[in-house]
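Chain A, query sequence.
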Amino acid sequence: MASFRLMMSKGWGAAALWLVVLLATAGADLLVISKPAYAQSAVIREIRVVGNRRVEQETVKSYLQIGPGDAYDAYLVDQSLKALFGTGLFADVSIDREGGVLVVTVVENPVVNRVAFEGNSDVDDDTLAAEVQMKGRSVFTKARVQADVQRILDVYQRQGLYAASVEPKLIQLENNRVDVVYEITEGPSTKVVSINFIGNKAFSDSQLRDVISTTENNFFSFLKNTDIYDPDRLNLDRELLRQFYLKNGYADVQVISAVADLDRGGSGFYLTFTVEEGPLYTFGTVQIESNVADVDGNTLVGSVSTSSGDVYDAAALEKSIEEMTLSVAEQGHAFVQVRPRVDRDPINRVINVTYVIEEGPHIYIERINVIGNLRTQDYVIRREIQIGEGDAYNKLLVNRAKKRLQALGFFKSVDMAVEQGSTADRVILTVTVIEDSTGEISFGGGYSTSEGVIFDVTLKERNLLGKGQFVQLKLSGSLERMQVDFSFTEPRFLDQNISAGFDAFHREQNLTQEAGYKSRKTGAGVRLGFPLTDELGLQTRYVFSREEVYDVKDDATLFVKQQEPLSYVSSVGYTLAYDTRNLANNPTRGVYLEIAQDLAGVGGDVNYIRTTAEGRGYYPLTDKVTLVARVVGGSIEGWNGDDVRINDLFYKGGETVRGFRRGGFGPRDLRTTDALGAQYYYAATAEARFPFPFIPEELGLSGAVFADAGTAFGATDAAKALDASGDLKLVDDASIRSSVGASLIWNSPVGPLRFDYAWVLTHEDYDELQAFRFGASTAF
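Chain A, predicted structure.
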């Protein structure tokens, strides 16, 4: 109090000074007293774990970032919480401090007793179980369940079921165990309902649909999976389109986009490809320039497949490079590379090409790895690569190997990666494949004016047991015909570029209306095929068959009644084919030539030699109109004193010259009107095909106008003898039968159908006519 009075008496300045001194002294005393107590409570003396039943305490403590003796740190506690949650062992974790004790409270995640799937029918349990990470005896976590839900949805989307949904359910069990049940609602299948193209002028939508691997959904889509939207397949289709245009003269082509739009209802995808074709180019000058002293470019002219004036073909360009590279390598120059120097003239629309031969880097293949082939045997892939460990590395040959693997049709994708080897001049080649389905079942049906109701069922496997072998069983028939065929092919017989196979068949045909009899043929054969070039192939064969003529009509011609009812035929033959068509189906450019001969009499009791030939050419008159020309011919003659049997002769009609019935022209017995069959025939066809101008191309309808001409003649000696004796009235001449007409062609879901209406221009009085013809379209 005295101090206060002194402070007041001496003024406010002294009082303030006195107050500061008192507070400072008191504060110092407080700090001295409180510091030891604070330090003692901030140090962790013990860690206590609460709530653990399955996980050991030491395991929990091992994830903590703070321990006994450490000062309490909120940051380290937070890191400890994150570490414990990150283990996936706990559903909840909390860390509290009780004085010097750090209390860690955990709630353990349950253990999965089993994983089950409900509501799935399109995808089996084994497939889904292999995809999910949650397994029996594993620890349950919400994050893992959510990841599994997405994996299941991915599986369904690959199956085209984009409307599928998955809801996980937990069934609590004793001892902190749970059953995890994924309840699946599959929903309707989401298929590709429409494929459209924008910017295409040179080729129609239907032609481009034949190029790509994806197909539109139709009535028979359950037999295949190519109508399911697949992003990988969409990328493949973009490349297929680009390669197709490059092969057909459009060097500037760009596939700008490939878009898949799902409709609002989720019922289907609409694919749209946008292309920019550019102009059509032809080859200009083609030259060879060698920068390697020991290589003469003139010796490589025969390896060049590109010629001045031909339509530009990128595939022919690449083939020329491959052939030249191989030819130079065979001369002892393993590291020589051939590089095309392309000079494009957009004004004159020509491309000048100079093949430059130069020395490449000296690099060897140290090792070849093949991965991803779960089903296809390793040797099936390696034999297509055609280069091995220790060989000179050549990028062109590696690219060629990739194309050969893609051409097998066994894989969705093929990737060939090159990595550095153990030394600077060594590389490791890794071949990665993603396998595709190779089995197929298909069937079709329809109606033909010549055969009535027709049907076709085919089972096919292109990679039998992963060995690259082809097997097919086909059943086809109609009211007039029944046929069963089984075939097996080994594409690389004795590990050589030779195909080998065998066939077995049974065929029955009713020719009662045409010739007064029925025939039956059962047999088997073996064959060998040799690819001479990329366009030229040779196939040889041997066939043995048992053949019958039966159910001969009472009023049939005597020529039929005199035929041997049972014969055994043993024959050898070959087929030589040359094919440069741009498309196997619905081609617009190129030629197809074929000649076949069979010699019967190598054993058996029938002797003949049969020759048939066919040539087809395709030329685009405009972007939409294609001119097709076709010539066919054949002959059959007996030898060793034998005449030709009736069921070996040619019966020609509307399939050769439209406007005539089957077997409608050729040698005939006027007394019975039965066709007797011809030993010779030839015919020619000219046809212009075009799309209808105001009908959407997606309907698959097109038209054609045609002109046919041909003949069949040459009765056998036996028929001539019967005519001379008066037992039949033979008519046989080589006069030309001809017709003109129009056609409607429909690429229907069951296959191509064709409607022909023909006006016969020239015929003989005894010929049998048929103006309208309807049935399965014959591609030519």
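Residues 1-41 have pLDDT under 50 and may be disordered. Residues 7 and 15 are 5 Å apart (CA to CA).
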